[in-house]
Specification:
- The protein is of the alpha+beta class.
- The protein has helices spanning 18-31, 48-51, 98-112, 127-135, 167-184, 187-190, and strands at residues 8-12, 58-64, 67-78, 81-89, 117-122, 139-140, 152-157.
- The protein has a seven-stranded mixed sheet with strand order 1-2-3-4-5-7-6, sandwiched between helices.
- The longest helix is centred in the C-terminal third of the chain and has 18 residues, at 167-184.
- The radius of gyration is 19 Å and the shape is globular.
């Protein structure tokens, strides 16, 4: 199948997904020379409900039909702070903008859940991921602790979306888009085609 024309979906993970998630995450870690840690850093992958959903967080998967090709999680750290965790994408699906879709989705979920700031930990070996985070405005910070396989920590203020648009402004823009779509189907709009269209805001969430 030509993957460039396959529609991807993102949904909340379930307990039935855990084995496939572990296979994907552990395989990617191994490709970068990083060891999985089922008893420590990766213990969450054996109980998504207890580590994420029951604690006010989220764990989502990206699908190509019924195949899990990507993961991303939001862990509730308390006091409006959350941590981006387990963002991985199957190597066969990279360089297609899907990493950005996963990150867009996760930042949107974090805002929906009421978080004001998001942090993450990563490893220097994951150069593509680090470049993506920096392009969204994540800044390096000095953390209180780091997971054993990580040597970089970053953070982003969630009050403002990447690109400078606030959440409320995006909602207003979406309402304008919806109104514009209805208006364009009316005879009145067709008689006033000299007016310029508003630009669309394209996100996955």
């Amino acid at each position: 199948m030509d993957k460039s024309f396959t529609k991807m979906t993102i949904r909340c993970a379930t307990a039935n997904d855990e084995a496939a998630i572990r296979e994907l995450v552990f395989g990617i870690l191994g490709a970068y020379g990083l060891e999985p840690s089922p008893e420590d850093t990766d213990a969450d992958l054996y109980d998504l409900k207890g580590h994420y959903f029951d604690c006010g967080g989220d764990f989502s998967v990206m699908l190509d039909l019924d195949q899990i090709i990507g993961t991303v999680a939001i862990h509730n750290m308390g006091s409006g702070l959350c941590e981006l965790r387990k963002m991985y994408l199957d190597p066969d699906y990279r360089r297609r903008g899907l990493g950005r879709q996963l990150l867009d989705y996760s930042l949107g979920r974090a805002r929906e859940l009421g978080f004001r700031r998001i942090t993450l930990e990563t490893a220097s070996a994951l150069k593509e991921a680090i470049a993506l985070y920096e392009s969204y405005g994540f800044k390096r910070i000095d953390p209180e602790h780091l997971a054993p396989r990580c040597d970089i920590a970053m953070a982003l203020d969630l009050k403002v979306r990447p690109g400078g648009a606030s959440c409320s402004s995006v909602r207003r823009e979406r309402r304008r888009e919806a109104f514009g779509a209805r208006s364009r189907s009316s005879p009145f709009f067709r008689s006033r085609r000299s007016f310029s269209d508003r630009s669309a805001v394209s996100t996955l969430w």
